[in-house]
Amino acid sequence: MESVNAPQALAHLRIKRRHWFRAQLAAYAFLAPAILIFALFAWYPILRGFVISFQRIDLLGAPRWVGFANFRLVLADPLFYTAWRNTLQFTLLALLLGYLVPIALAIAVNEMRHARSFFRLAFYLPVILPPMVAVLLWKWFYDPGPGLANSVLRALGLPAQQWLQSPETAMLSLVILSTWANAGGTMLLYLAALQGLPAQLYDAAEIDGASIWQRLRHITLPQLRPIMLILLVLQIIGTMQVFTEPFVMTDGGPVNATVTVLLLLYRYAFLFQNFGAAGALGLMLFVVLAAFSLLYLWLTRRFDG
Amino acid sequence: MAKQQDSATRSLISSLELRRPGGRALYWALFVLLLALTLTTILPLYWMFAGALKSTTEMLRVPPTWLPTEPRWANYPLAWSRLNYSRYFANTALIALGAWALQLAVSAPAAFALSKLQPAGGRVWLLLFLATLMVPPTAYLIPQYLTVVRLPLLNISLLDSWWGVWLPGAASAFNIFVLKQFFDGIPRDLTDAARVDGANAWQLFVQIVLPLSRPVLAVVSIFTLIGAWKDFFWPYLVLNDASLQPIMVALFRLANRAQEPLNLIVAALAIASLPPIIMFLIFQRQIIRGITLTGLKG
Prior knowledge:
The complex is a heterodimer of chains A (305) and B (298). Chain A is built from 13 helices and 2 strands. A two-stranded antiparallel ribbon of chain A has the order 1-2. The longest helix of chain A is centred in the N-terminal third of the chain and has 47 residues, at 6-52. The relative contact order of chain A is 0.11. Chain A has helices at 6-52, 69-76, 78-98, 100-111, 116-128, 131-141, 148-155, 170-195, 199-207, 212-239, 244-249, 261-271, 275-304; strands spanning 55-56, 64-65. Chain B has 298 residues and is mainly alpha-helical. Chain B folds into 2 domains: 15-77, no CATH class; 82-294, MetI-like (MetI-like fold). The model of chain B is unreliable at 1-8 (pLDDT under 50). Classes of the chains: A mainly alpha (305), B mainly alpha (298). Chains A and B meet through helix 1, helix 4, helix 5, helix 6 and helix 7 of A and helix 1, helix 2, helix 5, helix 6 and helix 7 of B.
């Protein structure tokens, strides 16, 4: 070992180091575009999101620090409370109306021996539609006169509704549309989970004399529980950011019944050019959503591990 | 992931039970119920495609006609020309193609570097990329908009330019994640052998990794193209110039213009939903596999 002379070893080390350096350089050449793009359009804006809530932003001049003025302004706005109440109402109604629908659909479709791919496609159809098309389409359906919604109700002998025109039913109308537009996508995720269930569990339960109903309660649903919890959290995160539906269908009306947090944020920023206030409201929403995101992370870790 | 369910795997109701009268009754009851429920998705779509064939007076009739009395097929071409759809279709196609090209050009090399070259600090970068997935996009909507209004350091505005849509869209941690997952599955022996044969990183990427990754590249491409077609809000914020707008933004603007006849608006909705529907029907298998693999809802 001692016989290797020092200069040779040093030269060897230098070549090795140069080799290592070249490999690093090549790897970072591949990474560079992504790092640049993320720095500009993701990391920087995310960090700046915390800052602008404490600033007054002029599109032309430099931002000025204003302390908590934006927060005071937002909290003094009576619409702030309306918006949060409406957003919570949307989220809760969407859970009540829509959370179980994809689960039930997936379990039923998974049982089908005939036309299964037809059912899957049929229930997925609304998800394929662009959201703007779906929203404009339903705006037309909700027309209290010749609209499809009331036509169906009349055909079934039920009383016609005012839908988007009445503060009592406007939010519910948005929730119905949103459920219609999204349930098929969630159903696919449940279908995938159902197809991963081990057949032996059902076989064993059947041999033990468990009825179909008992197997559903004691095998299918417990097996689905991890993904049910995860999708519950994801749905809450998604619905709390509801925007396109009220923006396109009602613009927050009638009498502010459908002003949501994001719609209010949009108005601060793009109607009143008050980006600081919008940032403050966004930060509050972010804190609430971050709590749910952490819950989501914790759940996925727990079930993956 | 398990492949499509075949008869070997079972579900809740067993084949034995299906042969008994009770089980069979339950099965067919469920079948009929599901069939009835498909009306909730098929009827609205039928209403759109059929409504576009009606005259404006027929559209306002109460109770409505379930079949157009005199189908006006000309409504579709009329809507196309009156709403200037050639321009918006071309805009959307170009925006989608640009978004696709840029997203792949940014995500694929990054995923390749993280998976196969594994530079020092690679794990930190991966973590930083993935961290953006945990931040809801609405939380940094305003600062992102301000960034596009005036790019830091360069001080140029991307408003009313397709770059304002393409560049922020290229920051897709989701793509990097999915591609890296796939690249990780390419056996080391394969890349090592190429290395021994003297291939450099670029050759490794272009000649070995990319050709082997066609399935995942297809999934990412389809999702990117459909996503760009459906996108509304960001292009709406960035593109105020009507001649640059994609179809969804144009639809929103036209639908709010009182002077457009309702049947033409509905025809326009129907036309705008055709490309994603056709894309889905063609690539159904890849899309469904992609959704179930990644948990993305499309």
